[in-house]
TrEMBL record:
It comes from the Bacteria. Gene3D superfamilies: OmpA-like domain. It is found in: Cell outer membrane. InterPro entries: Bact_OuterMem_StrucFunc, Gly-zipper, OMP_bac, OmpA-like, OmpA-like_sf. It comes from Arenibacterium halophilum. Residues 101-218 form the OmpA-like domain. Residues 1-21 form the signal peptide. This is OmpA family protein. The keyword Endoplasmic reticulum does not apply. Keywords: Cell outer membrane, Membrane, Signal. It holds the Pfam family Gly-zipper_Omp.
Length: 218
């Protein structure tokens, strides 16, 4: 059977979209290799598209899919391993770790990280941040975004400044614990990216957070 370049690119695109939107394609959510599988699908789909666009023939497209799938699978496997080790090292069960298949997101609620209106890291959370830093040193092939968020209480400019200071405070603990400053970017989002409604106390509490986003270098 002969496939045209357009057909292969379309199939690759559907695989990539499916991997992002249909959890059923990846099987049991409890599968420890689920994120590796997602990485393979995403890598293969993107690799096929790149191969199709740059190589201009079917062989290049297939080669791109194979290489992309291998790379995506390796990234997914590393993230699965790092996630498991991080979970084992966390001392506070309110610290949330999310593995999306292409990154890890460590979410630190403000209520356990800072006092109200403060950007001084709670001593109780310092060991967990040191554990994150140790993980980053064990997995050096990644970059890190430390992102501060607030709710919408008060002036937007004040919240923006507070989110920046909190992100920097968390990043400073990571760096003082051995993570290279060249790997870390600090970002203040203020009240701009809520994950819950700011109309309830519970929602506002969810929005007050710092996220450590670990992005593998492909």
């Amino acid at each position: 059977m002969t496939f045209t370049k357009a057909t292969i690119a379309a199939v690759a695109g559907m695989l990539t979209l499916g991997a992002c939107t249909d959890p059923g394609m990846l099987g049991d959510p409890a599968d420890p290799n689920r994120n590796r599988n997602q990485g393979v699908l995403l890598g293969a789909g993107l690799g096929a598209v790149v191969g199709n666009l740059t190589g201009g023939d079917t062989k290049a497209t297939v080669a791109g899919a194979v290489l992309g799938g291998v790379a995506g699978g390796l990234v997914g496997t590393e993230l699965d391993k790092q996630e498991a080790e991080l979970r084992a090292s966390m001392g506070n069960d309110r610290v949330r770790i999310t593995n999306t298949g292409d990154r890890l997101i460590v979410t630190l609620p403000q209520d356990i990280l800072f006092a109200t209106d403060s950007f001084t890291v709670s001593p109780a959370l310092t060991p967990d941040l040191r554990a994150v830093s140790q993980s980053l040193q064990s997995y050096p092939n990644s970059t890190v975004q430390v992102v501060g968020h607030t709710d919408n209480t008060g002036e937007a400019a004040y919240n923006q400044d507070l989110s920046e200071r909190r992100a920097l405070a968390v990043a400073t603990v990571l760096m003082n614990s051995g993570t290279s400053p060249s790997r870390i970017m600090t970002i203040g989002q203020g009240e701009n990216t809520p994950v819950a409604s700011n109309l309830t106390p519970e929602g506002r509490a969810q929005n007050r957070r710092v996220e450590i986003v670990i992005l593998p270098n492909r």
